[in-house]
Amino acid sequence: MERAFLERYADVLLASVGLEAGQNLLVRAEPVHLGFAAILAERAYARGARYVRFDNNDIENPLLYKARVEHSREEYLEYVPEIRKQALGTMLEEGWALIAVRTPEDPDFLAGLDQARNARVARATAEAMKPYQHRISSNEIPWLVAFYPTEKLAGKIMGMAPGPDAVEALWQVLIPILRLDREDPAAFWVEHGKVLAERSARLDALRLDSVRFRGPGTDFTVGLAERSVWRGGPDLTKGGKRFSPNIPTEEVFTSPDYRRTDGRVAFTRPVLVPVVGKIVEGGWLRFEKGRVVEWGADAGKDVLDVYFGIDEGAKSLGELALVDTGSPIYAANRVFYNILFDENAACHVALGSSYSACVRDGEGLSEEELKALGFNASAVHTDFMIGGPEVEVTGRTRDGREVPIITGGRFAI
Question: Which of 51, 113, 248, 375 could be 118's S-S partner, Cβ–Cβ 3.0 to 4.6 Å?
């Protein structure tokens, strides 16, 4: 891909995260992304950034992570150095912007790990970083999740041999999804965000008590809390700065009442679970009174076994998101093995932590206060796709009316 095009993409990401003159930027990514990180840094400095840091710790470096899980002494598997926490704490206190490139060099690299040892490392790290991740997801700073193709991932997505040709072919799929073919892509995402915000407002106006999904292998109801609010498009930091957490984005979402989920739900797309590093295919869950009580998968059930053992909150919902089939991501008719894209192709739920931004008057509330209101607390948050053309979505209002929300794959509101 031509450098000028990559600079254009970098400019979209920097505009979306709202990077300001004098602000610091953290780019979190794997070593394979260092070249693009350098382009981001150049464009960030051109915008007036004070300092740009590339964070390549062992969570983003699969080689170091694999070496640790396979060869560390048992007594060291749960060690988390203070410097990891200090670095994030400093970033939060100084109001940095964060861009996280979430595309693995090889999506299957960690698939063969001993899952019991992997779980110990993942659980300890997630728990240690939980207070900092909670502050980020509560929008103390502007943050953005982004995508950048790698050769092996591109080969897997495109059904080609890994290599530059696969990457180039994938870019041709990504260009319309990212709207990089527009004259001003950044301006498009601003206008598109307004559409999603209006859709969220319409859902709020319905005063929904619950949302029900019905389709093949799915009859599943998610209850909403009294203070659940819908979000979509750009968000605001606690200091009032506008930013977009995801590019691309097609979803409207809320944090449900974690105590009020019941029924069986089938996954409609494979999911690469980042905290475990392995793919789940053909997965399903059964909930009773807000908790997963039974689960299975055609492939990757052991991933769910590990995930649900991380903490108590991993078995309950922290997010409910609605997406219809009208987006270019859905039209691409591909599985991207990347949550940023796959979650924007279908309705999904997240197992794990809730978003305080989806709680009316939730700013400043502690995890304990949020949980008392019905909002889940966990060290993890992973999206699982549950929607598609065959899945009907209806809502029940607080005054007892049933309202069609998604019919035949398209929004009815």
Answer: 113
